Amino acid sequence: MSLKNNSGQEIDEKFAAFLTNANAIRAVASAVEGTIGPKGLDIMLVDRFGEVTVTNDGVTILKLMDINHPAAKMLINIAKAQQEEVGDGTTTTTIMAGTMVAEGVNQIIKGVPVAKVIEGIKHGVKRAQEILTSKSIPIKGVDDPALKDIAYIAGREHEDIAELVTQAARLIGEEKLKEKNFKLRDIVMAREGAENEVFLGVIVDKEKVNKQMPRELKDVRVLIIDDALEPEQIEGEALGTEAGFARYMALQEEFKENLKKLKELRVNLVLVGKGISSEAEEILTDAGIIALERVSTKDLERVAEHTGAKIMKRSGLKKSIEEIGNYIGAAERAYEDEKLEHLRIEGGKGKPMATILVGAATAEIVGERERIAKDAASSLQAAVKGGVVPGGGAVEVAVARELEKERDKIKGMASYGVDCVIAALKRPLAQIVYNAGFNPLEKLEEVIYTQAEKGSDAIGVNCDTGELANMIELGVIDPALVKIHAIKVAGEIAQAILRIDTIIKKRDEGPATKGSAEPGAGMGEVDF
């Protein structure tokens, strides 16, 4: 069988796996590269039912793409990992990974041993991370004007979203933003017909279980039950006996008595993780208590943190009034927003917690507005944690220049692997320039020359005019952590893909059937 590379040259059949995987990775990268930069365009994804999603968000595109090739799936999974870790940079990661793999395969086809290519990539990625870290500019607290620029760029130049995100950061504070388990993106929600708003408090996206319950509460005392609010159940067979029925009635009475404790404790808001029985609903309604059922675990935890409440199980209601009192949280106000069909809790007595509410004119753009705001929030938080670097692909080019200087210090053929990293680092700027309608080769060389001449890592391309400009002076900056993690992840996927020498189709691993082959037979076959 004759194989050809992208230039139409015939190559050895032993490179089939490398080419197949490289083409799959390239196809995925091609799908998102048109979205990068201020002039990037949107992608329309259509499912089999005709439902349409129009987005510029890299991770959303990757998640919704119909992909079957295993190498492509590996790339998508590792891009998702980038999103989970730093919340942004998936498009940059995908583009760099695609370039790194393609360059690696080209080197292998030319005769460079795979092990040497991988060794060089590993070295190049490590040095790139170190160089990026050294170039990071620290943020001077939540009032630093650079945070607005970060949110504006990551928020795809939506001024209103950038303002919302920076306002929320100031309300929450630097200490909270630096907490390991806190993600600013989690406090973002978009709703059709809502007004843009940031407030100290939380939104629970549920309606009260009974319309007769109060619409608004002040001096809120909240109890959170991560369980069902209903009497304990007994088996149906046991219920048919006299003793079983007596036990059933006792449990019913005990449950009612436990609920009466809430009135004594002046509890007026109850959040429940599972369902609420009709008996409990009636008792709570008569007591003037607002109750929400089937509240998500994430919302229960956020309300607990904001109000200072402790989450309990249903069995906790059996405790004494004094003990239950230790579980109760407090807030200044809670009220139902009938238009948006949710409950707001404001002025909690626990930790400060803000909510970013993003308005959208129509249902079709709600999802995209939320994605944009979440990206802006993630980038801002990453900047607070790890500082900023020049954006627009400029800092990647600066790192590539430094790696080129070090290339000659590397012994043997591993230097060809470093070349793969250098090519990947240059790719984002080239693609951003191309998307803006300019010649990427010409502009890339201009940037490389001018950065060296002026001794500035911030020189990039103004995508409005095509002229070279200082990215920091233009306000085009990116979180250092996003860049550092992007090159790390791109290197990991490139190494993983280039290690694959043969593609073998696995046999089915279901239960053995009559007449099945002997152990060891048909362990696999090459899937051409």
Low-confidence regions: 513-528
- End-to-end Cα distance: 11 Å
- Kindly name the structural category: alpha+beta
CATH architecture of the largest domain: Orthogonal Bundle
Count, helices: 19
Describe this structure in words.
- The chain has 528 residues and is an alpha+beta fold.
- The chain has 2 domains: 3-137 and 388-500, GROEL, domain 1 (Orthogonal Bundle), CATH 1.10.560; 198-360, GroEL (3-Layer(bba) Sandwich), CATH 3.50.7.
- It has 19 helices and 19 strands.
- α4 runs antiparallel to α5 (114-135) and α5 crosses α15.
- It is elongated, with a radius of gyration of 29 Å.
- The model is unreliable at 513-528 (pLDDT under 50).
Summarize this structure briefly.
The protein is an alpha+beta fold and 528 residues long.
Features of this protein?
528 residues; alpha+beta; GROEL, domain 1; GroEL; 2 domains; two-stranded antiparallel sheet; 16% strand; disordered C terminus
